[in-house]
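cron nightly-structures :: item 1 of 1
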Amino acid sequence: MGAEIVKEDEMNPINIKKLDHVVLRVTDIERSIRFYRDILGCSEARTSKNLYQYQAGASMIDLVPKGTGVKDTGLNSNKEFDNMDHFALTLAEFDEDTIVKYLEINGIQVERSGRRFGAEGFGPSIYFKDPDGNFVELKGPPENVS
């Protein structure tokens, strides 16, 4: 499938506003539900056979147990592959010390932190891993640009 470049005078019909959702294949569904629901505070949006959907602010995190096929997504999660580096969740407020302490209390080690560029510009962020080793980035509000 060849991709054509849109000419400058043509309007691109794709206008991305935010991350809608990410689908994670997980090894232990109950452990992952506890992590995303109880530790990160994502509320359950809906569940169906082998598909567990959690609201993460304006976005969604879908959990699918590895080794199951999910007709709703059109994907077959029987394949074992790691094809995601990380996903980022934007936070309304960012107090790094408080967040790090909270994660540590819950047995989660922060892997790295610092100023990083994201969809809304530069701002603070921290990275840690979920129960399946996927990197999660918590992104603070963007810096004020003068």
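cron nightly-structures :: done
The first helix runs from residue 29 to 39.
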